[in-house]
Amino acid sequence: KIIHTKQKKKTGVTYDSKSLSLHSGGTSGKCVHGKIADLLFSVWQHKRDVQKTTKYVELIIVADNREFQKQGKDVEKVKQRLAEIANYVDKFYRMLNIRVALVGLEVWSDVDKCAVTQDAFTTLHEFLDWRKLKLLPQQPHDNAQLISGVYFQGTTIGMAPIMSMCTAEQSGGIVVDHSDNPLGAAATLAHELGHNFGMNHDTPERGCGCRMTADRGGCIMTPSTGYPFPTVFSTCSKKDLVASLEKGVGMCLYNTPEVKLLYGGQKCGNGYIEEGEECDCGETEECLNPCCNAKTCTLKGDAVCAHGQCCEDCQLKPAGTPCRESSNSCDLPEFCTGTNPHCPANVYLHDGHACHNMDGYCYNGICQTHEQQCITLWGPGAKPAPGICFERVNSAGDPYGNCGKDSKGSFAKCQARDARCGKIQCQGGAYSPVIGTNAVSIDTTIHPQEGGNIRCRGTHVYLGDDMPDPGLVLAGTKCAEGMICLNRQCQNVSVFGVHKCSGKCNGRGECNNKKNCHCKAHWAPPFCDRAGFGGSVDSGPMRQAADSSAMAMGVLVTLLCLLSAGLIVCLKRKALVQILCINKKSAIQKLRYCQPMQQCFPKCVLSWIPAGFYTETSRVPRVLLKLKRIRFQVQYKFISIGIWGIM
């Protein structure tokens, strides 16, 4: 149903906006997000089983100065509350095979380190900038959340970018500590973390299944939160999570956290193997691990290991056993080392590596292209519009054409060179956007000076002021040859240094995100310049140790074949000259009658004799002086043929 049609003329451009009703509502405290479903999940060929693999979110929680004051200006009391919130969140996510590991707490007891106001969008923007520039370089982590004592305008109690987990720019969110019960802030933090993971709201039209009724709290990703607080995830959330992870979101979550960094001290039963523990399968009542004694955190019987993708039946898997397959064209596989029960930390291709038939570049382990984003928004058959669409539409600086928002929340105009990093412009596909009911179709007709019409299709999705518009080109998308979108600007891919990094791999490997070579099979890291088992110093050996015995056997067989070939040549050497000559006379007698040499030796044999040893009229005596050398060369040629035949 078309609600309205707006047209305006401006420099040869006609805008035609077709929309469904856009609204936000809710009387309870809510996270300001729109009603969108199955957002930004492109079709990929998936390999990794993301559900069975345990993910670990290394989380830092920051308390602002107002929260510090709210808790009686007691730093330890604040830390205790934040740790309790984190414990709840970890418990919520365990059912999704995700552990939330609290690796740091920070309390702003003197002054806020970034602007915290009642304007939620500005606060989120400032906090994410501070995290990227200050917090992340000081302490590596996967995600950071701000717990604030400030109440934002309206009913907003939390904000976070969607599908931003593990990114340096947007992996985080802000949460209001809105209840005396820490469970309230925990439910909101879990909700915002869910958006970082790519989870959308549980709206009625999605038909989500929730095992908790509304009067018992409902599910965590409901748009509005009330009492009692939700503690479980819906079927929609689980579906969104799997689709997001399979697409490549959350590449940093597959390594086990360094236990020394965990906040709260050592405890048998917390699920983390700490100093003095051989295993830890959680509390006694929840432990189902046959290899671990839950009471003592020690291994049972002859068990060598109890946890990890490289542990099977309480024993280590052989080196080279695949433990984490690649999930997309920008991801790299990992292999067991044979000495550690855990799979090596996840690695992927270096940012800026060409992908998708050279149509895109890898960024944070994902191959982003305009075409894939158009298909996501408009369905099969959609493709990017011509460059003039991006330039004309995105120069407007309004909701329908822009390069995002500035720090004040105003729409920014795109410079011509950055136009392909603004609002995505497409052609073809479905009649209306396929991403949900809150999507607006923006059809723009451009009238070039040379005549004709060009139709451009854009979208606007209402998500609230805190959310990046999914109608914007995603960071990491190729905007020109050798150029990539970063911070809404079309920048040279050389900023990543991928070509310099790949140069040290000797053409036999590719550079990973750790700036190390991932070598092809049969070549050894770190520089792929010698024979080996492939892989990288980060990923483990690509081939199993058993392959080494197979290689040794192959070498042995080859040597035996060579020795046999040499023996045969030696045995047949005397008969060789007789075969080459036509009659049954001795070799010397035959050579005496050769006038010239071509009458005695075939061309195939003469071709082996070095230049200068004979001419077309050469007589026998000159050749006889070199006969021994000729015989040696004939033997050498047969051996060479044997080698190449075997190889």
TrEMBL record:
Region forming the signal peptide: none
A GO MF label: metal ion binding
Domain EGF-like: from-to ranges: 497-529
Location of this chain's protein in the cell: Membrane
Transmembrane segments annotated in the record for this chain: 550-571
InterPro entries: ADAM_Cys-rich, Disintegrin_CS, Disintegrin_dom, Disintegrin_dom_sf, EGF, MetalloPept_cat_dom_sf, Peptidase_M12B, Reprolysin_adamalysin
Main subcellular location of this protein, as a coarse class: membrane
One protein family per Pfam: ADAM_CR
Key words of the record: Disulfide bond, EGF-like domain, Membrane, Metal-binding, Transmembrane, Transmembrane helix, Zinc
Active site: 192
Record-annotated Peptidase M12B domain positions: 55-257
Record-annotated disulphide pairs: 323-343, 501-511, 519-528
Domain Disintegrin as annotated: residue spans: 265-351
GO BP term, pick one: proteolysis
GO cellular component: membrane
Membrane protein topology class: Single-pass membrane protein
Record: residues binding Zn(2+): 191, 195, 201
Record-linked PANTHER family: ADAM A DISINTEGRIN AND METALLOPROTEASE DOMAIN (PTHR11905), DISINTEGRIN AND METALLOPROTEINASE DOMAIN-CONTAINING PROTEIN 12 (PTHR11905:SF112)
Name of the featured protein: ADAM metallopeptidase domain 12
Species of origin: Cyprinus carpio
